[in-house]
């Protein structure tokens, strides 16, 4: 009798599972959990994208308001990871090239400036003589290649950066090709404090 009751109990459980509404979600260990139509749609979700899929953001600029002279003996050496046309990283230390201003990555010639700097630094040991640091650990440095070439000077010579007299005292001004300040007009506008020109450009890009 006990076996009959047990058999009926098992049969009843099986029937309940088979006859449950089809819309009910399956067990959590089901390989299709959750149902296909209930899965998270990454395209429409407001959640942040996974870190490896996030768009690389432009590095924060050097904070001149909190800058302080660095130890004149501080020198970094090593392979350089190029962030943009005037910013590199050596041993996880962000370094702004001394005395110049290159276009931002989303500005005209920004990507070209970055790849020109990549070509200069590729396979080279870069020497960075730190001049100043800010409160966020970013540094300004005179960066040179093993053959003595100044990376700031090379970027200006190629017409992919302009001298920034406020910080360089005009050290690279004579190296600027003719017409480069019209070509890199957004960098020129920044030096003149005309940031409304930037805002107008960026608004037009968002509208496209």
From TrEMBL:
<feature type="region of interest" description="Disordered">
    <location>
        <begin position="24"/>
        <end position="71"/>
    </location>
</feature>
<dbReference type="InterPro" id="IPR035437">
    <property type="entry name" value="SNase_OB-fold_sf"/>
</dbReference>
<dbReference type="GO" id="GO:0004519">
    <property type="term" value="F:endonuclease activity"/>
</dbReference>
<feature type="domain" description="TNase-like">
    <location>
        <begin position="82"/>
        <end position="161"/>
    </location>
</feature>
<protein>
    <submittedName>
        <fullName>Succinoglycan biosynthesis protein ExoI</fullName>
    </submittedName>
</protein>
<keyword id="KW-0255">Endonuclease</keyword>
<keyword id="KW-0540">Nuclease</keyword>
<dbReference type="GO" id="GO:0016787">
    <property type="term" value="F:hydrolase activity"/>
</dbReference>
<keyword id="KW-0378">Hydrolase</keyword>
<dbReference type="Pfam" id="PF00565">
    <property type="entry name" value="SNase"/>
</dbReference>
<dbReference type="InterPro" id="IPR016071">
    <property type="entry name" value="Staphylococal_nuclease_OB-fold"/>
</dbReference>
